[in-house]
C-alpha cells in the first residue's frame, strides 16, 4: 500500500502517479516519499503493458523540494554525498523507463520537485505554475541532477540564470525557455499530459533551446558560446564576474555552481552527477549554508500568527480592504505604494499638496518600472495608482480598517494625529505609528482607545526592504495585533512582533552599532577605513554611509533618544552635533560625510574631520573596528532577548538580517554567537569592557548561557 502516491491506470495503459500524502498540506520530497517512489519505479521498469507515465500533484503545488530536515541529518560530507547519489539514482531510474514519462505541473515546482520533472520525458505546466531551483538561497546547489539536466535541456545561459539566482519561472515563460513542452489551463492539465504520455520519446539536442525558432542569428550565438570550449570559457568568465559582483565572495555556493555546471556540461551525465554530488556535500557542511538554512527555519517560524484566533473572533476571515495613511513623505509614499501594489485602497492624507504630488509620482514611477520589466500590463499602471486617493486631511478615515501614521518623529504631533483619528474611528479600527524610536506607550498615553494602538515600523525604502516590526504595548489588544500582522502579510513583509520600549529592537541595536562607529571616527580612524572594515565583514554598506542614507539629522535624533533611555551605556561623540549644525543632512540634501554630485555618492568629505573637534588621524586595525561595532550590535540583541522585547531568538536574527543588513551568510547576531561560541564572545566583550568601559559589559543572559554551556539554537548542528 502506498502512502505518498495514488496509483491509477487508464484505459489507454497510461499509468498515473498522484503525488502527495493525504494528511499533508504540501508535498516535500522527504526520505519516505523517495523510498516509495523508488519501489514504484522498480515495479514499473518490469512492466510491458504500460504505454506511458504521468506524475501529477494531488495538492495545490506539485512539490516544494527536498526535506531540509533530511539534509540536516547528514553529519559528514560523505553522508551528504551518498544521500545525493541515492536521490540521483531514483531520478535516473525515472529517466530510463522504456516508455514516455510526463510531469504534469500546477502551482509551485521547486528544487527537488523540478529535478524530478527534469528526469521526465515531457513537462506540461499550467498558467499558474512556477518552476525554480532555489537551493542557492540556502547556500547549496541542486543535488539531484538539476545542475546537469537543466543546462542540457535549456542551454547554459538560461540555466545559469535560474541556478545562480533561484529565480522563479512562470508557466508560459518555461515553454519559451524550453523548460516545459506545453502550458495549459489547470482544467486541461491532466488531459494534455495524457496525450504527451502517448508520444514517442525524442532525443533532444544537449544545450539547444527546444521550442526556440531556428534562425541564423540564434544558431550563430549558440555556436559562438555553448557549442565550443572557447565560447563556453567566455560564458564562464562573464558568469564568474557577475558572481563576484553580486556575492563579493561571501557565498561559496555560487562559485561551486559554476564549477559543477561547466565541469559537467561536456561530460557524460553520470560523470556530471558525480561532480554535482561531491560539490553539494561540501557545501552542506559550510558555515554559510548552515546559517542560511537557519534563516529559513527562522522565517518559517515567524509566519505563525499567535493572535490569529483573537482576530478571527472579531473579523472572521475578512482581510483589510482600506487603509488610511497620514503623511505623504518618503515613508508614507512608500507604504501607500506597496499597499496599492497589493490592491488595497489607500486614503493618503497630507496638508502639503506638493508632498502628495511627489508621492503619487513616485508610485507611478514604481509601477511603470514594473510594467517595463513585464511584471504588469501597461494599462495596470494607472489602475494601481488609482488605489491611492489623496487628501489634505483625514477625510473619510472613519471607514478605514487601519490608519498608519508616517509623519516626522515628533511626539506631540503624533499624539495630535491619533486624537484626531480616534474622534471619528469605528470600533474595529487600528491605529499604527510608523515611528522608528518613540515608545508606542508614549504615543498612546492620551489615547481614548489604547488597546487599538500599536507600531508598524517599516524600513526604507519600503518598496524594497522586507522587514516589518510590529510593536505592541501591554494594552494592545490581540485582535489589533492580528489585524496589523495580516496586513503585513498581505504587503509581503517579513514580520517580527516585539514589545514596546525605546527604539524597540531594530532601532536600538542599530543605534549601538552606529554610535560605536562614530566613536571610532572621533578616535582618529578615517571614514573609508570604518566603512571598508564593516563591508569586508559582510554588511551591504558601512555605518558612516548608512548615517548619510538614513539622514544625519534623523540619526542624531535617534542616538539622542537612545542616550536618554540608556544613559552611559551608549556614548556618542560631541562632534556629531557640529556636523548637523553645519547643514549636513546626508544624501537627501547632498551634504554629509560624503561628497555628492548629481545624487551620486563620491569620496569622503575631508572637511568633516575638522568638525569633529581636536582629532588626529590614528590607525585602528580593521579587526578592531569590526569587533567593536559588531559586538556592540550583538550584545544589545542579547539584552533585547533578555528583556523580553524579542519574543524569540529567531526574531532577533530575522530583524537584524532583513531590517538592518546583518550578513545573511552569518545567520544573524544570535546565530553568530552560537557559531563563534558564547565563551569566545564573552571573552571578547570582557576585553573590550576593560579597554573602553562599561558599555561593553556582557548581557546577563550571555553570562548565564556560558555558565550553563547553552546555545541559542541547540537543535541546529
Structure description:
It is built from 31 helices and 19 strands. The protein has 3 domains: 5-285, 2-enoyl-CoA Hydratase, Chain A, domain 1; 319-502, NAD(P)-binding Rossmann-like Domain (Rossmann fold), CATH 3.40.50.720; 507-644 and 646-708, N-(1-d-carboxylethyl)-l-norvaline Dehydrogenase, domain 2 (Orthogonal Bundle), CATH 1.10.1040.50. It has 717 residues and is α/β, with parallel strands linked by helices. Helix 27 (622-642) packs across helix 30 (678-692). The strands form 4 sheets. An 8-stranded mixed sheet has the order 12-11-10-13-14-15-16-17, with helices on both faces. Strands 1-2-3-4-6-9 form a 6-stranded mixed sheet, with helices on both faces. The protein has a 3-stranded mixed sheet with strand order 5-7-8.
Keywords:
717 residues, alpha/beta, 2-enoyl-CoA Hydratase, Chain A, domain 1, Rossmann fold, N-(1-d-carboxylethyl)-l-norvaline Dehydrogenase, domain 2, 3 domains, eight-stranded mixed β-sheet, six-stranded mixed β-sheet, 31 helices, globular
Number of DSSP-assigned strands: 19
In spatial order, strands of the major sheet run: 12-11-10-13-14-15-16-17
CATH fold description of the largest domain: 2-enoyl-CoA Hydratase, Chain A, domain 1
Chain oligomer state: single chain
Assigned CATH superfamily of the largest domain: 2-enoyl-CoA Hydratase, Chain A, domain 1
Number of helices: 31
From the 3D coordinates, which CATH architecture of the largest domain would you assign?
Answer: Alpha-Beta Complex
Low-confidence stretches: 205-216
Largest sheet, described in full? 8 strands, mixed
Strand content: 5-15%
Supply the CATH class of the largest domain: Alpha Beta
- How many separate structural domains? 3
Q: What Rg do the Cα atoms give?
A: 28 Å
Amino acid at each position: 500500500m502506498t502512502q505518498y502516491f495514488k496509483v491509477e491506470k487508464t484505459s489507454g495503459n497510461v499509468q498515473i502517479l498522484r503525488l502527495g500524502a493525504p494528511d499533508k498540506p504540501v508535498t516535500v520530497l522527504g526520505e519516505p516519499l523517495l523510498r516509495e517512489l523508488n519501489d514504484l519505479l522498480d515495479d514499473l521498469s518490469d512492466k510491458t503493458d504500460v504505454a506511458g507515465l504521468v506524475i501529477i500533484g494531488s495538492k495545490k503545488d506539485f512539490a516544494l523540494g527536498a526535506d531540509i530536515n533530511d539534509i540536516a541529518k547528514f553529519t559528514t560530507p560523505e553522508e551528504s554525498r551518498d544521500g545525493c547519489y541515492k536521490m540521483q539514482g531514483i531520478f535516473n531510474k525515472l529517466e530510463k523507463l522504456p516508455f514516455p514519462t510526463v510531469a504534469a505541473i500546477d502551482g509551485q515546482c521547486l528544487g527537488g520537485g523540478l529535478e524530478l520533472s527534469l528526469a521526465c520525458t515531457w513537462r506540461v505546466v499550467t498558467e499558474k505554475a512556477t518552476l525554480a531551483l532555489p537551493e542557492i538561497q540556502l547556500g547549496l546547489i541542486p543535488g539531484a541532477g538539476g545542475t546537469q539536466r537543466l543546462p542540457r535541456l535549456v542551454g547554459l545561459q538560461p540555466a545559469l540564470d535560474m541556478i545562480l539566482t533561484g529565480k522563479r519561472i512562470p508557466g508560459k515563460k518555461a515553454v519559451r525557455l524550453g523548460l516545459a513542452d506545453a502550458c495549459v489551463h489547470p482544467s486541461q492539465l491532466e488531459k494534455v499530459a495524457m496525450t504527451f504520455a502517448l508520444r514517442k520519446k525524442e532525443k533532444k539536442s544537449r544545450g539547444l533551446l527546444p521550442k526556440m525558432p531556428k534562425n541564423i542569428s540564434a544558431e550563430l550565438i549558440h555556436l559562438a558560446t555553448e557549442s565550443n570550449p572557447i565560447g563556453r570559457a567566455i560564458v564562464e568568465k562573464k558568469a564568474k564576474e557577475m558572481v563576484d559582483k553580486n556575492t563579493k565572495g561571501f557565498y561559496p555556493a555560487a562559485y561551486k555552481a559554476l564549477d559543477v555546471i561547466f565541469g559537467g556540461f561536456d561530460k557524460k551525465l553520470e560523470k556530471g552527477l558525480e561532480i554535482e554530488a561531491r560539490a553539494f556535500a561540501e557545501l552542506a557542511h559550510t558555515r554559510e549554508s548552515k546559517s542560511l538554512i537557519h534563516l529559513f527555519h527562522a522565517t518559517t517560524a515567524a509566519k505563525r500568527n499567535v493572535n490569529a484566533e483573537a482576530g478571527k473572533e472579531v473579523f472572521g476571515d475578512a482581510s483589510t480592504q482600506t487603509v488610511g495613511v497620514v503623511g505623504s513623505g518618503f515613508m508614507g509614499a512608500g507604504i501607500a505604494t506597496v499597499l496599492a501594489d497589493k490592491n488595497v485602497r489607500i486614503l493618503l492624507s497630507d496638508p502639503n499638496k506638493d508632498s502628495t504630488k511627489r508621492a503619487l509620482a513616485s508610485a507611478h514611477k514604481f509601477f511603470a518600472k514594473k510594467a517595463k520589466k513585464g511584471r504588469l500590463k501597461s494599462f495596470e499602471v494607472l489602475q494601481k495608482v488609482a488605489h491611492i486617493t489623496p487628501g489634505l486631511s483625514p477625510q473619510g478615515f472613519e471607514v478605514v480598517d487601519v490608519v498608519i501614521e508616517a509623519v516626522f518623529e515628533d511626539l506631540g504631533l503624533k499624539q495630535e494625529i491619533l486624537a484626531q483619528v480616534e474622534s471619528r474611528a469605528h470600533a474595529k479600527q487600528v491605529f499604527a505609528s510608523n515611528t522608528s524610536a518613540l515608545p508606542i506607550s508614549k504615543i498612546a498615553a492620551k489615547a481614548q482607545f489604547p488597546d487599538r494602538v500599536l507600531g508598524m515600523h517599516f524600513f526604507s525604502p519600503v518598496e524594497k526592504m522586507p522587514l516589518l516590526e510590529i510593536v505592541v504595548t501591554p494594552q494592545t489588544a490581540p485582535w489589533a495585533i492580528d489585524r496589523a500582522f495580516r496586513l503585513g502579510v498581505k504587503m509581503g513583509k517579513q514580520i517580527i512582533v516585539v514589545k514596546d520600549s525605546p527604539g524597540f529592537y531594530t532601532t536600538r541595536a542599530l543605534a549601538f552599532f552606529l554610535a560605536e562607529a562614530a566613536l571610532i571616527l572621533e578616535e582618529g580612524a578615517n571614514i573609508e577605513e570604518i566603512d571598508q572594515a564593516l563591508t569586508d565583514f559582510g554588511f551591504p554598506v558601512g555605518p558612516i554611509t548608512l548615517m548619510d542614507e538614513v539622514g544625519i539629522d534623523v540619526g542624531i535624533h535617534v542616538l539622542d533618544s537612545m542616550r536618554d533611555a540608556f544613559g552611559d551605556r551608549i556614548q556618542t561623540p560631541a562632534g556629531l552635533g557640529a556636523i548637523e549644525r553645519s547643514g549636513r543632512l546626508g544624501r537627501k540634501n547632498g551634504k554629509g560625510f560624503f561628497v555628492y554630485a548629481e545624487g551620486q555618492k563620491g569620496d569622503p568629505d575631508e572637511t568633516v574631520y575638522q568638525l569633529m573637534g581636536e582629532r588626529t588621524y590614528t590607525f585602528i586595525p580593521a579587526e578592531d573596528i569590526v569587533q567593536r561595532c559588531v559586538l556592540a550590535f550583538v550584545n544589545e540583541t542579547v539584552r533585547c532577548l533578555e528583556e523580553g522585547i524579542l519574543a524569540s531568538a529567531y526574531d532577533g536574527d530575522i530583524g537584524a538580517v532583513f531590517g538592518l543588513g546583518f550578513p545573511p551568510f552569518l545567520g544573524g547576531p544570535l546565530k553568530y554567537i552560537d557559531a563563534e561560541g558564547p565563551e569566545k564572545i564573552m571573552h571578547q566583550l570582557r576585553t573590550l569592557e576593560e579597554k573602553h568601559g562599561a558599555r561593553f559589559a556582557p548581557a546577563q543572559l550571555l553570562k548565564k548561557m556560558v555558565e550553563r554551556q547553552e546555545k541559542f539554537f541547540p537543535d541546529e548542528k
